[in-house]
Structures are given as C-alpha cells and as structure tokens.
Write a structure and sequence with these properties.
The chain contains 3 helices and 5 strands; from the N terminus they run αβββαββα. By secondary structure, the protein is α+β, with helices and mostly antiparallel strands. The protein has one domain. Helix 1 crosses helix 3. The chain is globular and about 40 Å long.
C-alpha cells in the first residue's frame, strides 16, 4: 500500500498534467482506495459540477474489495482473486479509473504524466 503522502502526490501530479487538456471550469474529484497488500484503485470523476476534492478511503484487503467500492461496469461477479500488475486504465462516462500495483515507479510524477497522456491520446485516437 503506498503511503498516503505518495498517493496524494500522484493524485496532485495527475491532476496537474491532465488539467492542461481540460476546458476551463471542469473539476476533478478523486476517490482513492489503497490496497493493504499493495497498490491502489484511483477513480477520477470529471465534470463542470465537480469540485477539485480528494478522498483517500480506508485500505481495502485486495483489489476485488476496492473495485466493489468503485462504480464501474468493467468487472462484475466474484472479484475475490483478481490481481493486477503495472497500471491498468478504465475509461467510463465521466470517470478515469487507474488500478496500480505497488511498484514505486507507478507513483512518480513521470507515471502521472504518462497516465494523463495515455488517456488524452486514447481519447483523441492517438493524436496529440
């Protein structure tokens, strides 16, 4: 599980990197679910009615438990044994969900920048 300061640092860095691509007035709310055994699920909600606000929830036992707390349509059923490596991205409606393992390189400023660029390039069909 990343320390709270590391998790908050990633959230701040991601918000800074993605913000340059957003229209003025778009807010980003973040819900972060650290995983006791390592990693976290981070959900960013975008919208004109969203405040720039972060909530770091109490640690979940595993990825399945964390994902059950995040509104998403990608995974369903019994998620007890699900695991992830690296950074995994889910884009749904007004949400960007990142599932990240505990590798320290996943939490640096460069990782936040790469995550933001991957989302923007995907939304633009690979065009900067």
């Amino acid at each position: 599980m990343p320390e709270k300061s590391v998790l908050q640092g990633y959230i701040n860095n991601f918000r800074r990197h993605i913000g340059r691509y957003l229209k003025p007035g778009i807010g980003i709310r973040c819900d972060a679910y650290p995983i006791r055994t390592g990693g976290a699920v981070i959900a960013f909600h975008l919208g004109s009615s969203e405040e720039n606000d972060d909530t770091i929830h109490s640690a979940s036992e595993n990825f399945g438990q964390a994902l059950s707390n995040v509104p998403q349509n990608t995974f369903d059923g019994n998620l007890t044994g699900i695991s992830f490596k690296g950074t995994n991205t889910i884009l749904e409606h007004d949400r960007m969900i990142f599932i990240k393992d505990n590798d320290p390189t996943q939490w640096h400023d460069l990782a936040a920048k790469n995550d933001a660029h991957r989302v923007v390039l995907g939304a633009r069909g690979g065009r900067p």
